[in-house]
Amino acid sequence: MWVIINFIQALLILIWTIIAASTGFIIYIITWSKKAPMVVSHFWGPLLLWTSGVRLRVTGKENIDKTNYYIYVSNHESLMDIPAIFTALPVNVFFVAKKELQKVPFLGWFMIMVGMIFIDRGNKEKAYESMRKAGQLIKNGRNVISFPEGTRNTDGKMKMFKRGSFIMAKAGNVSIVPIAIKGAREVLPSEKNKLRPGLIKLKIGKPISGDQFSKDEVDLFANYVRDQVLEMRNSL
Questions:
Q1: How far is CA 157 from its chain centroid?
Q2: Which domains does the chain have, with CATH numbers?
Q3: Are the beta carbons of 173 and 69 closer than 8 angstroms?
Q4: pLDDT digits (tens, 9 = 90+) for 182-230
Q5: What is the pTM of this model?
Q6: Planar angle of CA 49, 53, 54, nearest 5 degrees
Q7: What secondary structure does DSSP assign to 156-218, as a single string?
């Protein structure tokens, strides 16, 4: 029974992703702006969650100042984190994502079109260049989100946060907004790729400035933010 349900869900998700990406392309052609097509993400995320039978509970939206730009960092439980974040945040966000997502039909093409940043995790030099580009996005007035664990955790235990996002925050004098996600792994386990109905809880923390850490204390900065995310996740 679940095989049939998951097939129908996958088909609906594919159709909606094609429609959303195609709409984004049309908006881009009309406006010639990479920001304008992002409006479709605010529709794509909720409908994808609804199609998947997923409910989303969000707390902490009051911590976001829409007049400022931030680097949002989140723990990474499953691919459902992406539509959950798009749905939860009241601002446009540009992802720092692994380069493999470029190959995902329509979704990857849309991400390339609007200027999302892709990281080659196997090449440190290219990864650094990707972070530099992300820093430039922020300076140009865009919010950026990354998953500093680097990949989805398969056992439910949060991995250590990599330094890139925090080097970028220090260099650009930009605050970090921590996000904690819980329940996405149960909805879509990375090792099974089988959708199940469920509840995803997402909590947005208060902005964290890196001013309290020196340039040589990036690891302390990363660990501090990780502790905040872990604490928030445990409270969900």
A1: 18
A2: 2-235 (3.40.1130.10)
A3: no
A4: 999 999 887 666 888 999 999 999 999 988 888 889 999 999 999 999 9
A5: 0.88
A6: 55
A7: SPPPPPPSHHHHHHHHHT--EEEEEEESHHHHS-TTT-----EEEEEEE---B-GGGS-GGGH
